[in-house]
Amino acid sequence: MKQDIPLVTVIIPVKNGGALLRECLSAVFSQQTDFPYEVLCVDSGSKDDSVDIIRSFPARLLQIDPATFGHGRTRNLAIEHSPTDFVALITQDAVPDNDAWLRELIAPMRDNEQVAGVFGRHKPHAGCIPSEAYMLERHFAHFGADTTLFQIRPGPEGWAHYEANKPYYRFLSDNNAALRRSVWKRIPYRDVEFMEDQLWGADVLEAGYIKAYAPHAVVRHSHNYSPLTQARRAFDEARFHRQYFDPKHLPGFRAMLRDKLHQSKQDVRRLLNDPAESDKLSKAMVMVGRDVGQALGWCLGDRYELLPVGMVRRISQHHELKGDANDPSGASSSLVEHVKQTYQHSLAERGKLGTMTEAIRKAIGHYRQSRQHGLSRTMLDVRRSLRPTPPPTRGWWHAEQYVYIEPPKTPVAPEEPRRVDPNRLVINWVIPPFGRGGGGHMTIFRTIQHLERLGHECRVYVVDSSEMAPEPMRLQSLVHEWFLPIRAPVYHLREEMEPADLVVATSWHTAYPVRASHCAPAKVYFIQDYESAFYSMGAEWQFVEDTYHFGFYGLTAGTWLEKKMREQYGMYARSFPLAVDHSIYYPEPGLKTDKRRIFAYMRPHTTRRGFQLVALALAKVKERFPDAEIHIAGSVLHPSALPVPFVGHGVLDFADLRRVFSMCDVGVCLSFTNYSLLPQEMAACGCPVVEIDVESTRAAYPPGAVVLAPPTVEGLSTEICRLLEDEDHRQKQISAGFTYVRDLSWEKALDQSAEALKEFALHATHQEARPVSLLRSAR
Question: Going along 91-234, which residue ranges are E strands?
Answer without folding.
Answer: 95-96, 115-123, 148-150, 176-180, 210-220
